[in-house]
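Hello, quick one for you while I still have it in my head. Could you read through the record and tell me how the tokens relate to the sequence? No rush at all, and the record is pasted right below.
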Amino acid sequence: MAIMDVFLGDAFSARSLTAAVDRYSYVPNFLETLPGLFTQKPVRTAEVWIEERDFAPALIQTSPRGAAPSQRGGEQRKARAFMTTRIADASRIWAYEIQNVRAFGDEAAVKDMQMEVARRQMKMKADFALTKENMRLGCIQGVVVDADGTVIYDWFEEFGQTKPTERVFDFSATATEGDIRKATNAIKRRMVRNLKGLGGAGVAIHALCGDDFWDAFITCPEIRHTYQAQQALALQNDVGNAWESFRFAGVTWHNYRGTDDNSTVAIPAKKAKFFPVGAPIFQIAHAPAERFEFVNAPGQETYSWLVADRDRDSWADVEQYSYPLHVCLMPQALDAGKIS
């Protein structure tokens, strides 16, 4: 059986490979696991239209009985289109790479090729997962960046909203006890007010902490005094460990575990990023792939197909694609903190 004949079979169609890629285990991604954080939005076009309007309520001036009520104008709206991004990767399988694993004309060619394609897909899927986590991490900070650090979308700039000034936290032994709770309360009030009612009472505030910020936070006197009286055992064993979560002052704090170099995808060591969960301000649109068979169909998270060497029958490219747009609709509701 010729390799080209294998590629022309149903097992290697674009739809078969697209379905297969979703069945393999995924690389753990913290932001993907938070329920209620991101809303998935499959779309049928490469562009996504976002409409802006102000829902802020206004006081109504009293008027005498019998007088005509004041007239309120229509809502001011603005709609703009944003292009989805493209994530693409490919891995070439050469004929010589599987030369010694089958006899000429053996039907095992399909099985051998499927295993090799699956192995390449899994490696690319890990890269895709890391890339999308990088985009999610940027989205919850209001600025989505590319692999090289260039800005894809600055949602503060796109929506004309003000980026908050980083708040300095003092976790030293000389700090006044209660200051951390007051600073946290101020952050929570500002964020909820800037949501303008989105999410209602179901909004929860979370913070991703860099390593130095986390260690200073969970070892400062105010935090330890809060739990020593009744939960001393928990403080010793369960509270404040690396890469875990901790609830204090109505905020769930997480020591974010990034890449092993702690820089490629990570929270800076001395900083914390605050964001709301349960308010629908983070959305991911998925556009359809650039193939005729997917035109005008709702977008999927990931696509995969195989491109064969039709001239020499020497290689085949396993390709994977995704067309997401990570949107933060209200970056004004985000906040950030740091230690000196």
Summary: Helices lie at 3-7, 14-21, 30-33, 108-139, 155-159, 179-194, 211-219, 221-237. The mean pLDDT is 83.
